[in-house]
Write a structure and sequence with these properties.
single chain; 263 residues; alpha+beta; 3 domains; 14 strands; binds zinc ion; Competence protein CoiA-like N-terminal domain-containing protein; CoiA-like_N
Length: 263
């Protein structure tokens, strides 16, 4: 949870502060570490909303894009209470899903929020199993690199190996975020091995739902830079270890050679 109520205001966490959960009214405390994005946590590690999933920077970027007035909105219906990830000014619920989800939870969420909801799924975890190619063109250009498909216009076919089958009976629109400048809007075959979809630009999507595209773009570039930095550092570490191993191997040879000389 990225917002809690402090002094009647919806605020982001600061180190060592306390607040109230807007959903259940329970006391929450700030978690401001170095690895995860700063968030609020319930006590005893319990979260009040059974649909809760651990939040990631992917969640934070999308929620912040739609602004604190629209993110994490408490919705009550028939004695049930849930926290919608995003409720737009035009009353559309955007549910963000980062991790695998059970079929039952998908239909529960759809029923609770009704026709006005849509799914935005993080495809980063399965992008290598999800290939997209031209449906109508003369050349079936296979590509698993979603940002390298030349023509993003028109219907595309997809092949999804190890498809996440719990999505097969989804009843709302699904948009998959593969970490590029577009979203893949699945038109049929969600959760199955093959299907059809369209690319739509993130800019159009964000502006359609009154989000802040500039903010999103800024964060997007920042995350990409961080990721590049991380990969570069990993590579450096690997190279250093490799040369250390070579060096050690070399020293072993020298020692063996010296030993033999003594004979
Ligand atoms: Zn709560």
């Amino acid at each position: 949870m990225f917002w809690a109520i402090v002094n009647n205001e919806k605020v982001r966490p600061q180190p060592n502060t306390f607040g109230t959960c807007p959903t259940c009214g329970g006391k929450v405390h700030s978690k401001c570490g170095e690895i995860n994005d700063w968030h609020w946590a319930h006590y005893k590690g319990q979260n009040c909303d059974p649909w809760y999933e651990p939040e990631s920077d992917w969640h934070l970027d999308w929620k912040m894009t739609f602004g604190k007035e629209c993110a994490e909105q408490v919705i009550r219906k028939n004695n049930e209470i849930h926290r919608a990830d995003v409720l737009t000014k035009e009353n559309v619920v955007i549910e963000l899903q980062n991790s695998p989800i059970r079929k039952g939870i998908i239909s529960e969420r759809e029923e609770f929020y009704g026709q006005r909801m849509l799914w935005l799924i993080n495809g980063g975890h399965f992008k290598n199993n999800f290939q997209i190619f031209e449906l109508d063109g003369p050349h079936h250009r296979w590509s698993s690199e979603h940002n390298q498909i030349k023509n993003k216009i028109g219907r595309k076919a997809f092949q999804w190996n190890h498809a996440r089958r719990s999505w097969a009976e989804v009843n709302r629109h699904v948009f998959i975020d593969f970490g590029t400048d577009t979203l893949f809007w699945v038109r049929s075959g969600m959760g199955t091995k093959t299907g059809i979809g369209l690319f739509i630009s993130k800019k159009d999507f964000i502006l359609k739902y009154d989000g802040d595209y500039e903010y999103y773009q800024e964060q997007f570039e920042l995350r990409q830079k961080k990721e590049e930095q991380r990969l570069l550092e990993n590579k450096k570490k690997e190279d250093a270890e490799k040369s250390k191993r070579i060096q050690q191997g070399h020293m072993r040879l020298v020692r063996r050679y010296r030993k033999r000389k003594r004979w």
